[in-house]
Design a protein that fits this description.
Blueprint: E1 23-33, E2 57-59, E3 65-69, H1 76-93, E4 99-100, H2 125-141, E5 151-156, H3 159-172, H4 179-196, H5 198-205, E6 210-211, H6 213-216, E7 224-227, E8 230-232, H7 261-273, H8 277-282, E9 309-312, H9 321-328, E10 332-338, H10 350-365, H11 373-389, E11 396-399, E12 402-405, H12 406-428, H13 432-445, H14 451-462, H15 465-482, H16 487-510, H17 515-520
Antiparallel strand pairs: 1-3, 1-4, 1-5, 2-3, 5-10, 6-8, 7-8, 9-10, 11-12
Length: 523
């Protein structure tokens, strides 16, 4: 934040034509729960196909944690429309009485972690490895933490933007970079600036200010009782993103940097190759010799690294994420710091999606100095403050070592974003982007209008967080089941489901190597 200027001018070479080729996609998680709110123990519905090979409908950590993935689309509206189709398909396939939980934080978990079933991907080595990875996460961090759900917003800009920009850059100072190197540099600049603005996202879009008692039983915490069945912090925004949520003390000291791609790849690989004493102590296999984690390293695989934003490239079969990045560069960025919006039937509103895109463009076009450990520490302090008390009147955050009011800081950045919202509207037509920024300005000026304030108020009014989640889940289900897919769309998804089951069978018959030999290469 230290170097994130509060004054911003759109570069003279930039115009709305350069937004052509922007793509966005969403990955959205959601727990399946029974009518009593407890975690569903049923297997992933067969009607939805194979979760190992289906391109759009899979599971995340648990058998009960659905993950819905859209194609990359040319407008945010198209992306949300596809996400809605996937929700309709899920509801058509769910057993009677089952619901998709609308909140990021789980509710009625039993006190026994073993009641959270690991996702089962079948008998192929690829499938078994995915389940083993989840087993490792469970013994390392507890299964409860893995039931937290979130939403990832994936975004890429068209190559035309980078090509045009590079010509300008060469005119200004002689740079001899390949187009891929130039693009990598610019995407990493976006990522560093997004990290500097993560607190702003948590204030505006955070929706997890409270939790059910089962989530914190047996854990140290400083939450207050709202009523007998909800714990909260009165001014919290996103407990999911704080110490209580999906964090990892082991990873805090990894020092993985985003200043250039080789540095990032090296840092990530170092963590995958370095054993960690506490994970070694857990053992690799159980008493019967069955593997319980892939390895005892700081990260079992690259995806275990938890960051609010990631550079991504689509990996080919048998390729690791860092190999894909190294060979073909950054294809898109994945925004990960986003709570589910419980008031939306698909977990995110159009206004939030449009706002994330304005912010991404703002992060891309702004100067982005290198991000060093000292600044990272300051950002971590700010994040913790905003997570726990983001809606406090006159809350201050650190900016280059100086205390600054959060509200003024957010408003300054939102004001800077307005011209970019106008350019996006000029490109797409309509005024969705300007409306989104105006909405966020309203939230910045009045903390009671944030989603987190609404979640606390409704949990109080209805008597518990569980009651709020249950009420909204039923509303969303009723609404989604009234939506019909066209016969063509319905048929397309049915074919996809059948095909995915055949693909899984194919893998299971072709992968004949002994599983223990197979995982040895990861160890």
């Amino acid at each position: 934040m230290s170097n994130f200027a509060t004054s911003f001018e759109i570069p003279s070479w930039f115009d709305s034509q350069l937004l052509t080729g922007m793509l966005r996609g969403i990955e959205k998680e959601g727990l399946r729960v029974k009518a009593d709110g407890f975690l569903a123990q049923t297997p992933h519905p067969l009607k939805l196909g194979s979760k190992l090979t289906h391109p759009f409908i899979t599971t995340d950590y648990s058998e009960s944690l659905l993950e819905l993935i859209t194609d990359p689309k040319t407008t945010p509206k198209d992306t949300l429309a596809m996400l809605r189709q996937l929700h309709v398909l899920v509801y058509q396939a769910l057993p009677e009485g089952e619901l998709m939980w609308p909140l990021s934080m789980p509710c009625m978990l039993s006190s026994d972690d073993e009641d959270i079933p690991l996702a089962d991907y079948g008998s192929s080595n690829t499938g078994k490895l995915k389940t083993l990875y989840r087993s490792g996460l469970g013994i390392r961090y507890g299964r409860r933490m893995q039931t937290i759900a979130g939403l990832h917003y994936n975004l890429s800009f068209g190559d035309g933007l980078f090509e045009h920009w590079q010509v300008q850059a060469v005119n200004n100072k002689k740079q001899q970079q390949t187009p891929i190197e130039f693009k990598n540099e610019k995407y990493l600049g976006l990522i560093r600036n997004f990290k500097r603005l993560t607190s702003l996202i948590l204030y505006l879009l955070g929706a997890s200010p409270n939790v059910c008692p089962c989530f914190i039983s047996g854990r140290e915490h400083d939450l207050e009782l709202m009523n007998e069945s909800t714990y909260y912090k009165p001014a919290a925004t996103s407990l999911r993103m704080g110490k209580l949520g999906y964090t990892n003390s082991v990873q805090e000291h990894l020092d993985i940097r985003y200043n250039n791609l080789p540095e990032y790849v090296t840092g990530l690989r170092r963590a995958i190759q370095t054993p960690h004493d506490s994970f070694t102590a857990l053992g690799l296999n159980d008493a019967d010799g069955n593997p319980i984690q892939i390895n005892d390293h700081i990260l079992q695989i690259e995806n275990e690294y938890y960051s609010p934003i990631r550079p991504k490239q689509i990996a080919d079969r048998g390729e690791t994420p860092t190999e894909a990045l190294e060979r073909r560069g950054i294809a898109y960025v994945e925004f990960r710091a986003i709570d589910l919006d419980p008031y939306s039937d698909v977990g995110i509103r159009l206004s939030s999606a449009c706002f994330l895109e304005v912010m991404a463009l703002y992060c891309l076009l702004n100067d982005s100095p290198e991000l060093m450990p000292e600044e990272e520490e300051e950002l971590a302090i700010n994040l913790e403050r905003v997570v726990n008390e983001g809606r406090l009147d006159n809350l201050h955050i650190l900016n280059d070592g100086n205390e600054q009011p959060l509200q003024g800081w957010i408003l300054a950045h939102l004001n800077n974003m307005q011209p970019l919202a106008a350019l996006l509207d000029a490109h797409y037509g309509g005024n969705d982007y300007r409306a989104a920024v105006a909405l966020m300005q309203g939230k910045a000026g009045n903390s009671e209008s944030t989603i987190s304030a609404q979640v606390n108020a409704d949990s109080q009014r209805l008597g518990s967080l569980w009651q709020l989640g249950f009420t909204l889940a039923n509303q969303h289900r009723d609404y989604l089941l009234q939506q019909t897919l066209s016969p063509v769309t319905q048929a397309k998804y049915e074919v996809l489901a059948e095909k995915s089951i055949l693909q899984q069978l194919e893998l299971e018959t072709s992968e004949t190597e002994d599983f223990m030999d197979f995982i040895q290469q990861y160890r």
